[in-house]
Amino acid sequence: MIQRIQTLYLLAIVVLSGFVIFSPLVDLVNKADNLIYHVDFKGISLLQPTGNTIISRIWGLTSVSCVIPILALITIFSYKNRLKQIRLSVINMFFMISFYIIMLLYLWPACQQLHTDWHLRIVSIFHLLNLILSYLAIGSIGKDEKLVKSLDRLR
Questions:
Q1: How many structural domains are present in the chain?
Q2: Is position 88 within any domain?
Q3: DSSP characters for the chain?
Q4: Which of 7, 61, 108, 120 has the greatest count of CB atoms below 10 A from its CB?
Q5: What range defines the domain where residue 134 resides?
């Protein structure tokens, strides 16, 4: 299982997705009032010297962020069924794309309401890297499936 390259791709997806869950994704900056907001898995929170105050919850973004590494782990452990692995990887790619759509759906009204500019952090591009890794994993799984089918023809 671990000697297959797609397992390493899928493990990288799990690790990068863990960083996405537990790190701030976006900074919202209101230059007029000198206010800074963070967007992370808890929601949109106002940074203050006394402590952070949560302004808004973003359950949709949090749930999609949690589904991605779980689905990648399920894909790793279903190594005996390669077609199922391909399907799960495609579904996971759908969740990665929907992560960005949901993030924009939350950020657009929040920026309008709070009168802020948004600045992406490096963590927010990890799901783009995950898309590439998932595509590479699908290719490797397909190669394994071809190899197994060719060996079955020899019997």
A1: 1
A2: yes
A3: -TTSHHHHHHHHHHHHHHHHHHS--EEEEETTTTEEEEEETTEEEE--TT--EEEE--HHHHHHHHHHHHHHHHHHHTTT-HHHHHHHHHHHHHHHHHHHHHHHHHHHHHHHHHT-EEEE-GGGGHHHHHHHHHHHHHHHHHHHHHHHHHHHHH-
A4: 61
A5: 5-23+58-114+124-149
